[in-house]
Amino acid sequence: MEIIQLIMDYGVDTLVIALCTVVFTGLFKIPIKKLADKTKNSKKITRFVTFLPMVFGFGLTVLSTYLLKKQLNFNKAFYVQWVSSVSLSLAIYAFGDKFVPSEKKILSEAEIEANKAAVEKLKSKIVDTAIDSESTTDSKVATQFIKETESGRIANNKKIILSNNKSIK
User: How buried is 65 (Cβ within 10 angstroms: 0-12 exposed, 13-18 middle, 19+ buried)?
Assistant: First the structure.
């Protein structure tokens, strides 16, 4: 409802700027993320990606204002349109990210099986440690963990994601 009110208050051009900002930001992020994947410290490259909507929103607002009004004044109306379009673009991006599932977020069957195998290994190590341990506290903790895991309480509340790290035994 707030988005519709924003469009009615600030016009369709704000919506168009917001949509273009989402598209340009998404397209510009692709090569940046690919470059970051190839480097050891990807945070140095990707830390400024957060500010891309502000930059693209500013540029598109300048372009829109100049094309529609044939003049460029950095006044209150300009800044309101800029901030409104950037805010709307971030809302559109957030809605899309939340409601459109990403392939990276869905675990494959192999990952699910690897997670199950890892849980079983952990359970067996905990049981072995509890049996070898002289401490009754460790034994109680291990027993409680096994009961919670078997009942599905931990499995339903936690997601275990493993990498292809072969050093895990």
Answer: buried
